[in-house]
Amino acid sequence: MLGAAVFAQTTAVPALPLQNLGLEHLDIVVPDPAASARFYARIFKTKLHQQPIRDTLRYFVLLGDLPADRQVGYIAIGAGQGRPPSIGHYCTLAKVYDRAGMARELEAAGYAGIRGAGGLGMWPDPDGLELQLFQPPAGLVTAAVPSASFDSTQDSPERSRGALPVDGDGIVTPLGVDHVMLLVSNLEKSLPYYRLVYGSGVEGPRENGRVWLRLQRNTRIGLEQVSGGRAPMIGHFAIKVAPFDRAAVVSRLRELGSNILASADEPDVLRFTDNYGITVELRT
């Protein structure tokens, strides 16, 4: 028995670096989640899901077909509750999520512990940018259901309020999350944290002042140092998509009042702002 215990200890999976399974979803906070969900449903060929959260609804924009195990990338859209529109957090899947062990290792290295109540919480980096972790089976929470499926004659008012039956007129096929770009106050201060969390082996060479962390499933985290006195933030997110008609998408975006942003360094990327000014990229 003693030998078995020693073997279990020596073969235990360390809490850090994470055995990551790639980016899974990102979260945006906006004044009107329904308006934001409608915007994205007119860009992406998608299915909207929704979930009651306290006195409001959170919407989920699926970035692909929903399989039986509910493992699919998505954009979660929640109410800002007075906060300005922003990308609130990003989520990485981990083969093993040892919350207590991760807290010990981060705190021993001088970093802040987990924020928030509940079973998951948020892990802040040195600038307070938040990481959420899921361990499979993860994906959309079980309370999220197709937004157009509510029956007001049978579902409770709390469940049916805000249902968004959409016509499905999106024109781009999403294939999952490509990357998130984190704008940090100081690269040299941030990199030791990210090496601890993800391992030095994921770090690529610097490109145009950016450092890319290459995660599983061909997903990435970009680190870029802010300038001009701007505050650290999650600067933008990028969605992998099937080849698309650029002129048609630009026309749709302009119809929706979106701004097309220059991407001279990446001519194949379509970069724009959504209806609340959050920057989004489409990448084939």
Q: Enumerate the strands of the largest sheet in spatial order, edge to edge or round the barrel.
A: 6-7-5-1-4-3-2-8
Bulk shape: globular
SSE topology string: HEHEEEEHEEEHEHEEEHEEE
What value does the average pLDDT take?
88
Q: Report the CATH architecture of the largest domain.
A: Roll
Distance between the termini: 54 Å
Number of domains: 2
The CATH topology name of the largest domain reads: 2,3-Dihydroxybiphenyl 1,2-Dioxygenase, domain 1
**Proportion of residues in extended strands:** 25-35%
Unreliable segments of 5+ consecutive residues = 4-10, 149-160
Main pleated sheet: 8 strands, mixed
- The beta-strand count equals 15
Number of helices: 6
Classified by CATH, the class of the largest domain is: Alpha Beta
| Rg value | 20 Å
Structural overview:
The chain has two domains: 20-147, 2,3-Dihydroxybiphenyl 1,2-Dioxygenase, domain 1, CATH 3.10.180.10; 174-283, 2,3-Dihydroxybiphenyl 1,2-Dioxygenase, domain 1. The protein is built from six helices and 15 strands. The chain is of the alpha+beta class and 284 residues long. The strands form two sheets. It has an eight-stranded mixed beta sheet with strand order 6-7-5-1-4-3-2-8, covered by helices on one side. A seven-stranded mixed beta sheet has the order 10-11-9-12-15-14-13. The radius of gyration is 20 Å and the shape is globular. It starts with a helix and ends with a strand. The longest helix is centred in the C-terminal third of the chain and has 12 residues, at 187-198. Helix content is 20%, strand content 32%.
